[in-house]
Design a protein that fits this description.
511 residues, 2 domains, four-stranded antiparallel sheet, 66% helix, 5% strand, disordered C terminus
């Protein structure tokens, strides 16, 4: 159990250093929340990568093989963070207190409980409800083995086979397996799926001392809790009021479909949601707070998406396109958008549109046909499943009232969407993410999955964190009283002077 506990703590140690390198040491307790949650998610990805690098021939000792390397990486990453903290303390003056760690958690708790503002009590109530929700999900995950469906047949089978064998063997397609002479080649319907998640499972299984599926499945609850912490901290960092940020966090954690994926652990969709969501909120923080390190961290997280699931390549393309579009000078954006759209349309008709996507291979678009190296040829054609898609969003009990509330929020906060460049970029990213399931299910043979309600909502779940990130940007500075200290941060905001805190400013387009 000591090793299993270290399997949870070492990712936090190494990933927390990466987060602090990107955004600096956390000066307030919302930043501590984002450092813990985001750092743990980054560290788990690093743990899986180190396990794959070190334990190909000793999968049962994946933790023992990879842990020293992860620890050494964390130590090396913390060195520049410590140097930065020391430099800031030397430069700090008594009047400004710059560079000091200003978190006073217990003082904040005592002060908030003494206040007679009912919204402060609402904040604590929502926090308690989130904790109770996560406790219930963790208990459910600990009570059952992997649910015998796609989670068992597609996502955990490689990790379990490798653990029981003691080494990693190659998986190939059925034809190659049938023609192979050696017995070390294996086949599987999902033989070409990415393998990073399998190595993360091996990290925890080897630390637990055996293939104990409840101890592996509870990691899904850790992913949900870590992203909730990271999202709350990043939303507070971009200027969202503490009560609104907590309400958004509760709304996300309480989604019924999200809870099903946590309790019935084993699917990769929750991981895609968490990593895509973390990349999105980190990128939005980079835009608001002008942090170059957060921008690079967002790109690194986005690059990890294809290593988790094949759809991750599409999310990487969506996020990468919007990030690139934001970097274009404002006076050239419209011309670049029109030019690239026309050029892409002509190239697709002529068969010249060829893109390399991680894990998917080379993707070629020729008229109504799309050739994907890892999948095959897909022919586009209209499928009448729009009613099923809308029914999954508005009629089934998967999303509470999320898709009803989203258009209302956009209408109420349209002025923010019109005036805030960050809100517009978040809206573009959301439109790009929602366009993918529409194209997938309305124009390809995947429409059968939407008609029987099997996979449509799982694809939407992968980008649902982007919906909440967009809502958080629309609600920036809503409910923040002028010249007051917002609970949950040590920064004093004054609406009359936007220069008092760069995080409260509304950035305009560069140039």
């Amino acid at each position: 159990m000591i090793a299993y506990g270290l399997a949870w703590l070492l990712p936090l140690f190494a990933g927390g250093a990466c987060r602090c390198l990107a955004a600096g040491p956390p000066p307030t307790h919302p930043d501590v929340a984002s450092a813990i949650g985001g750092g743990w998610l980054v560290g788990v990805l690093l743990a899986g990568a180190f396990a794959r690098w070190c334990a190909q021939d000793a999968t049962r000792d994946a933790f023992a093989q990879a842990a020293p390397w992860l620890f050494a990486f964390g130590v090396l990453a913390w060195l520049p963070v410590g140097w930065r903290v020391r430099r800031d303390r030397v430069r700090a003056t008594p009047s400004t207190g710059a560079g000091r760690f200003t978190w006073r958690g217990w003082r904040f708790v005592a002060a908030s409980l003494r206040r007679r503002d009912w919204t402060c009590w609402l904040w604590w109530l929502l926090l308690g409800l989130i904790a109770w929700r996560l406790y219930g999900l963790a208990a459910e995950a600990l009570l059952r083995p992997v649910f015998p469906w796609d989670a068992w047949s597609a996502w955990m089978i490689k990790a379990k086979a490798w653990f029981l064998l003691g080494h990693a063997e190659a998986y190939v397609d059925a034809a190659t397996w049938h023609a192979a002479s050696q017995s070390t080649v294996r086949t599987l319907g999902s033989w070409n799926y990415p393998e990073l998640l399998a190595w993360i499972e091996l990290w925890f299984a080897s630390a637990a001392g055996g293939w104990l599926e409840p101890l592996i499945g509870v990691v899904w609850c850790g992913v949900c809790a870590a992203f909730a912490l990271a999202a709350y901290g990043q939303w507070r960092a971009i200027g969202v009021d503490a009560r609104i940020a907590m309400a958004l966090t509760y709304a996300l954690v309480s989604l019924p479909l999200l809870g099903a994926h946590v309790a019935l652990a084993g699917y990769a969709d929750l991981w895609i949601m968490a990593i895509l969501g973390l990349a999105t909120v980190t990128w939005l923080r980079a835009l608001v707070c002008r942090e170059r390190g957060s921008w690079w961290l967002a790109l690194a997280l986005a690059a990890c998406l294809p290593a988790i699931k094949l759809e991750g390549a599409v999310w990487l393309l969506c996020l990468g396109a919007i990030i690139t579009f934001e970097r274009i000078a404002p006076r050239w954006r419209v011309a670049a958008f029109i030019g690239l759209t026309v050029l892409g349309f002509v190239a697709a008709l002529a068969g010249w549109l060829v893109l390399p996507l991680p894990e998917l291979g080379w993707v070629r678009v020729h008229g109504a046909e799309i050739s994907i190296g890892a999948i095959g040829t897909i022919r586009l054609g209209w499928h009448e499943v729009g009613g099923a898609l809308l029914g999954g969003l508005y009629l089934l009990p998967n999303w509470h009232l999320l898709w009803y509330a989203l258009p209302v929020l956009v209408a109420v906060r349209f002025a923010r969407l019109r005036d805030d460049a960050v809100a517009r970029f978040a809206g573009l990213l959301l439109l790009a993410c929602l366009a993918f399931p529409c194209v997938l299910f309305l124009l390809t043979d995947a429409a059968a999955w939407a008609a029987d309600y099997t996979s449509a909502n799982r694809i939407v779940l992968q980008c649902v964190a982007v919906v909440f990130a967009f809502a958080a940007v629309l609600l920036r500075e809503c409910g923040v009283a002028p010249a007051t200290t917002v609970p949950g941060t040590a920064v004093t905001r004054d609406r009359g002077s936007r220069d008092t805190d760069p995080r409260s400013s509304v950035p305009s387009d560069r140039g």
